[in-house]
Specification:
0% strand, 898 residues, mainly alpha
């Protein structure tokens, strides 16, 4: 409610105005005009709007001036004391009439001010009641939010994150901006995220371990194959070719299966292995084209789905924007009609759709600004009208005063009396018309007629009374209209809320009848937002919660009823069994549990008394045995822990037993046994670790011995002896390796020259037969280094060179075709590497680079692609905070070649 204007005086001040005017009238009757003017000035200072007081003051001043003019100029001035002792004088009728009017006006203004203060007090009370209701509503919402948050925290402790978030969603319905709700939601989501992250980390670590194991196995396998390759290269060449064909078939079959199952990336990986083995396989290229086409179709479908989702989101946003725009238009239309409250209510409804919409905020600001401007203009207009009326009244008063002064000097005449009667008739006509307007509710027109009558005679009591009646009726009607409008708005809002609440409760009832209690509680929460103080909602929610609990407990209750019949007898039977075994606590526990089913069972009571009596007798014997039993328990626990090799726990347990009986030798021997077992276990672990390292060195030494790498074998055996110097097997194996190395060197020196030449000639002829001219010339060169004058080698060399020249001429035409095929294969691997890079699978991308290197190790495009992938991998590692893994495709390329 706006603050009252400053020119409105309090009722107490206006009551003082009447007192000052009465005192002034007393001074006037005594002839003390100066004191009377002072009192009138005080009254006007309290109420400057009292025009009768102004007229009274002017009339008194005119009397003072008239008295001064009547006195002779030569008369001596009277002292103030003489003026104060002047006898009471007769007061002119007009002055007395104006005095009475001024006093009556002051009393009326005081009554009006008092009434206005009462209305203001009532408005303040209404506002206080509204604030109190709002506070109650806020407290109810806070209580309900606390309930929801408590449930959410309970679910959070149980790890039920989805149900906790359901409670948070209900709390958001009550207060979307509540910090506690936000904090609890963040806590729940953080815990949920941490749980998911923990699972992902565990899964990632397992994958890493599996990948490392696979890589180690792969490296070991490659190393083994590489070692065996030199030894068995000649006799297994044909078998290798067949195996490669079989491997190609397997990879192709697996790639086809992956393709049929929609695993396109795995299919491409399998094809990449085929390309490494057989780069010119046409079936690979055809299948790869099919896979690429399928991938493109799949990506197109995914892109189409993404576009459809984006289109749906766009349509939804457009619908929301259209609805908001419609609300804005309605609000502006209502604002243009001066219906500010309804316009702001429309804006509030629009905020439900988008609370942060800038257009809504701008529209709300425009409406508020226009409302303030309209109120300001209205207030200014009313002020100007009041000012104009006041000036007009002052002007009329001055005219009347002038006329009154003239009448006082000239005396009233018959013409004046006739004019007074004529004025009275006019006044009565104006007042009759004003009364008609007032009965029709046209208060402004009625006040206009009163103003016309006031111009005729401002001192007429009927005019003043009629003006007061019109103003009172106008204020009463205005208050009634405001109250009626407020009641209508409140009733309308209450009806809307009641209707929405009824709909929500009906929907909640329907959902509850379908056993959808969670959704029903959501509907009740929405109803609670609309009317937090509604007892019906509280009762309905309590009833719904009760039904929910009853529904959840329905099955348990049925099961309990089925079990209750046999539970008591079962507990009695088990209690008797425990009693026979002298396990009294368990027996009493069974009896107590039986009481939960039937508290008044006489058999249970008798059995309980029997158990307690037996327990009392048994306890007397048990005091001494308890300590022994506790020691035995510690001893048994220590033995169990010793069996499980939990030596520290076993020592702690046995020392607790020793603390109970320090003199018992069995406990001390047990402690010594545990200490010895612990020392033996530690030594065994160290020995096992050293034994594993020794076995590893022996295995490597044997592998090196098989490939006649005696130097590495002896080095490995030396390392094994350093770990286990007393191992006779290692010493014997080392001696065998040394002796074998000596024999092998001797045999090699003896047969090298004889067999090497024949071997090189044979190899050269085989290479020549296979048209491997470079290898044949290399074998010939090696043979000539052994026997530079061998005629067979020289003749074979000449023959090979001639055949090489002819073959080079024949292959010049095919070189361009081979270059194109290599470029195509390189492009395939580079394209696959780019795809893996986009998917952040940099290891697989570098595998593709390695395969490309096997085709052309000097290709600059491959080097550029590798550099680009490593840069992106490093950038991605910096962004995600992961440790950069260095993977060298050049080593894989070398492995692929070998």
């Amino acid at each position: 409610m706006g603050k009252a204007p400053d020119n409105f005086k309090s009722a107490e001040q206006l009551k003082e105005v009447a007192s000052f005017l009465k005192q002034a009238d007393k001074y006037v009757r005594e002839g003390n005009y100066s004191a009377a003017l002072e009192e009138i000035a005080k009254a006007r200072a309290r109420d400057p709007r009292n025009l009768y007081a102004l007229a009274y003051e002017e009339r008194v001043r005119s009397l003072v001036i008239a008295n001064k003019e009547k006195k002779p100029e030569t008369a001596p001035a009277s002292s103030p004391v003489q003026q104060q002792t002047v006898q009471p004088q007769s007061v002119p009728a007009a002055l007395e009439h104006i005095s009475n009017l001024a006093i009556v006006e002051a009393q009326r203004a005081a009554a009006v001010a008092e009434k206005r203060e009462q209305e203001l007090l009532m408005r303040k009370k209404a506002e206080e009641e509204h604030r109190r209701n709002e506070e109650l509503r806020r407290q109810a919402i806070e209580t309900k939010i606390s309930t929801f948050l408590k449930r959410a925290n309970d679910y959070l402790e149980k790890g039920e994150y989805d149900r906790a978030l359901d409670e948070i969603a209900r709390a958001y319905l009550l207060d979307p901006a509540n910090e506690r709700v936000h904090s609890t939601e963040n806590q729940i989501r953080k815990a949920q995220k941490e749980a998911i992250l923990k699972e992902e980390q565990e899964r990632f670590l397992k994958q890493q371990a599996e990948e490392r194991r696979r890589q180690e196995l792969l490296k070991a396998q490659i190393a083994r194959i590489q070692q065996e390759k030199e030894e068995r290269r000649r006799r297994e060449e044909e078998a290798r070719r067949i195996a490669q064909q079989q491997k190609v078939s397997q990879y192709l079959q697996k790639a086809k299966e992956c393709y049929e199952n929609g695993k396109y990336d795995e299919a491409l990986s399998e094809l990449a292995f085929v390309v490494v083995i057989d780069p010119l396989n046409e079936e690979v290229l055809a299948l790869e084209r099919k896979i690429r086409d399928a991938q493109e179709r799949e990506q197109a479908e995914q892109l189409e789905q993404y576009r459809r989702r984006e289109e749906e989101q766009r349509k939804k946003r457009e619908a929301i924007m259209a609805a908001i725009q419609k609300h804005i238009e309605n609000a502006e239309k209502l604002a243009s009609q001066g219906k500010w409250s309804e316009a702001l209510r429309v804006i509030t409804r629009a905020y439900v759709l988008d609370p942060v919409n800038e257009a809504l905020q701008a529209c709300e600001k425009r409406i508020l600004a226009a409302q303030e401007e309209a109120m300001r203009v209205e207030e200014e207009r009313r002020r100007l009208e009041e000012e104009a009326i006041r000036k007009r009244q002052e002007e009329e008063l001055r005219k009347l005063e002038q006329a009154e002064r003239e009448r006082a000097l000239l005396g009233e005449s018959a013409e004046t009396e006739a004019k007074r009667r004529s004025d009275k008739e006019k006044i009565l006509a104006y007042l009759a018309k004003a009364r008609t307007y007032m009965s029709e509710g046209r208060y402004e027109d009625a006040l206009g007629e009163v103003a016309l009558a006031f111009i005729v005679n401002p001192f007429d009591e009927d005019i003043k009374q009629m003006e007061q009646e019109i103003i009172a009726a106008q204020e009463k009607k205005k208050a009634e209209e405001e109250e009626e409008l407020r009641r209508q708005q409140e009733a309308k809002r209450a009806e809307e809320i009641a209707r929405e609440v009824a709909e929500l409760l009906a929907e909640a009832s329907r959902l509850a009848s379908e056993k959808e209690y969670s959704k029903a509680l959501d509907e009740v929460a929405k109803a609670f937002v609309l009317d937090p103080l509604n007892d019906k909602i509280q009762q309905f929610e309590a009833q719904l919660q009760k039904e929910f609990q009853e529904y959840q407990e329905e099955k348990r209750r049925k099961e309990e009823e089925e079990e209750k019949r046999n539970a008591v007898n079962l507990r009695i039977r088990r209690a008797k069994e425990f009693l026979e075994r002298e396990t009294f606590d368990e027996a009493l526990a069974e009896v107590a549990e039986g009481y939960t089913y039937d508290p008044n069972n006489s058999e249970l009571k008798a059995l309980e008394q029997q158990i307690r009596n037996s327990y009392a007798r048994w306890k007397e014997k048990q005091a001494e045995e308890e300590r022994n039993k506790q020691i035995e328990d510690y001893l048994s626990a220590a033995k169990s822990q010793l069996t499980k090799e939990l030596f520290d726990d076993a020592l702690e347990t046995i020392r607790k037993a020793i603390a109970l009986d320090p003199k018992r030798e069995t406990l001390k021997s047990m402690e010594s046994e545990i200490i010895r077992a612990k020392d033996a276990w530690e030594k065994r672990k160290q020995k096992e670790k050293a034994g594993k390292d020794v076995e590893k060195h022996i295995f490597k030494a044997k592998e090196s011995r098989l490939v006649r790498n005696y130097k590495d074998a002896i080095a490995e055996l030396d390392q094994a002896l350093a770990l286990d110097p007393e191992n006779q097997d290692i010493i014997e194996l080392k001696n065998q390796v040394i002796e074998e190395e000596k024999r092998w060197k001797l045999e090699k020196e003896q047969s090298e020259k004889e067999s090497s030449l024949k071997e090189h000639i044979k190899e050269a002829r085989e290479f020549f037969a296979k048209k491997a001219f470079e290898e044949a010339l290399m074998e010939i060169a090696v043979g000539l280094s052994i026997d530079p004058g061998n005629k067979e080698l020289l003749a074979l060399e000449e023959e090979v060179r001639k055949a090489q020249i002819e073959s080079d001429e024949a292959k010049e035409e095919e070189s361009e075709l081979m270059a194109d095929e290599k470029s195509q294969l390189i492009w395939i691997h580079l394209h696959a590497a780019d795809e893996f890079q986009k998917q952040k699978e940099f290891a697989k991308a570098l595998d593709e680079i390695a395969k490309a290197y096997t085709i052309d190790p000097l290709n600059p495009e491959i080097k550029k692609a590798e550099a680009r992938i490593r840069q992106n991998e490093a950038r991605y590692a910096q962004q995600t905070g992961q440790t950069l893994k260095l993977i060298y495709p050049d080593e894989k390329a070398i492995g692929g070649k070998q």
